[in-house]
Structures are given as structure tokens and as C-alpha cells.
Design a protein that fits this description.
Elements (H helix, E strand, L loop, with lengths): L1 H8 L3 E2 L5 H10 L4 E6 L13 H9 L3 E4 L3 H4 L6 H15 L4 E3 L19 H10 L4 H19 L3
Parallel strand pairs: 1-2, 2-3, 3-4
Helix pairs in contact: 5-6
Length: 158
């Protein structure tokens, strides 16, 4: 009922803090795209807050997206760096394409961040690194904010 009411009100539904069971319940009843605002890929780093490949595919199939979290424990561990963030982005792009991944840094909520992305002033490092990895400018624009903007425009109504 809560998810249905959120959909009716034009509220964005976020599954980043949900259990696997609750994730599937939300996806099963939402009529709008759902986001995981700040999570990573469980197949690259086993953590209960990260999403499985199956969950990522299901989220994308409904038009949603996953925002990559910069908390080192969700990426790889204490030694995580900018390249580990890129690995998570690449994994999602390989699974579902660049339209379903964004940045969910969690700068205001995590205890440790990757080397090279210590604060918001370092975000350009990520865009430059993605371009050097061969990503098209249009896809980097989507990843750096365009995908979130698309979903927000679709879900939130005047």
C-alpha cells in the first residue's frame, strides 16, 4: 500500500536499504521506475547492501537505476580507489547498459571513501577516468547525473 501511494503521489521509491525480500516486493508492486540510490554490485563485493546481478537486471527492466555508492566497504574494502568505482559502473553497463547507472556517492553518510574520490570536488576525476576508459561523452553525462534526472522527471509530477 505504501509503494502504491508513493506512486500515486509521484514520489521516488528507493530500495537501497531494503532486504532482498523487500526489494522484490517493491519491484512487484511499483508502477513507476524504482532506484537504488546508493548501492553497488554484489557480484564484485559481497555485501548485503549491494544488489545481485538479478536485482540489477530487474531494476533496469522496469526503467530504474542504481547509484554507485562510494563507501569503500561496498566497493572492495579499505583499499578501494577510483578504479573500483569504475569496475562497478562497468559491471552494470555490461549487464544492462549505461542508461541504468548513476552516482550515489553517499559522501554524507559513509565513513571511508575511495582514493581519488575523497570529496565532491574530486567528482570530475570520475568523469575523466570514464572517458579515458572509452565511454562516450553522452554516456558519461548519463552516468554523472542524466540518468537520475530522467527517472526523476518520469516519476515526480507537478
Amino acid at each position: 500500500e505504501v509503494v502504491q501511494e508513493m506512486n500515486a503521489l509521484g514520489m521516488l521509491v528507493d530500495v537501497s536499504h531494503l532486504s532482498d525480500l523487500a526489494f522484490w516486493d517493491v519491484l512487484g508492486c511499483s508502477t513507476q521506475p524504482v532506484i537504488a540510490s546508493h548501492s553497488c554490485c554484489r557480484s564484485l563485493c559481497e555485501h548485503s547492501r549491494n544488489l545481485s546481478d538479478e536485482q540489477i537486471k530487474a531494476l533496469a527492466a522496469e526503467g530504474g537505476l542504481i547509484g554507485i555508492n562510494f563507501y569503500t566497504q561496498f566497493l572492495k574494502g579499505a583499499s578501494a580507489d577510483l578504479l573500483d568505482v569504475i569496475r562497478h559502473i562497468e559491471h552494470i553497463c555490461e549487464l544492462v547498459g549505461p542508461d541504468h547507472v548513476g552516482i550515489g556517492s553517499d559522501f554524507d553518510g559513509c565513513e571511508s571513501v575511495p582514493k581519488g574520490l575523497e570529496d565532491v570536488t574530486k567528482l570530475p576525476n570520475l568523469a575523466v577516468a570514464l572517458l579515458k576508459e572509452g565511454y562516450k561523452t553522452a554516456d558519461v553525462d548519463k552516468i554523472m547525473g542524466g540518468n537520475f534526472f530522467r527517472v526523476i522527471k518520469q516519476v515526480i509530477r507537478d
